Amino acid sequence: MWNMEKVTLVTNNDRVYRKYKDDMEVILLDSYRDVLIKVRDLVYDRHILLTHPQASSLKPNQTPFRSVMVYPKGEEDNTKDIMLIEKCIETYEQWQEIAPTPDHYQKNVEEDFKTIDLSVIENIVPRLM
Fold this sequence. Notes:
The chain is built from 4 helices and 4 strands; from the N terminus they run βαβαββαα. Helix 2 (32-44) packs antiparallel against helix 3 (79-98). It has helices at residues 14-20, 32-44, 79-98, 107-128; strands spanning 8-11, 25-28, 47-49, 67-72. It has one domain. It is an alpha+beta fold. The longest helix has 22 residues, at 107-128. The N and C termini lie close together (6 Å).
């Protein structure tokens, strides 16, 4: 279906990075917001979203980790993806104003959030191959 060598995985989860860095391009960033901004830049640069920027049942202020997969689509129209990523950034910022994501979590809680994010990607990758 998709050429995995062309997929770009943008994440701020070191566990996702370590697991997939040898299978596809993986960009490791510092924050959830940084991931959304980088994905937006890639979408404006003619990539499409392979995964939803707000996948999982966690609200944008409930988890500090996010991983998103994109794919280059050349000249094809990706207006829907542009609108989606912009809406996701807007939603993220609204939630941060309402109740900001804590700066620090206990180690075991942080690892749980990383596991949730990793599991979303682990469930998607086989479907893309």
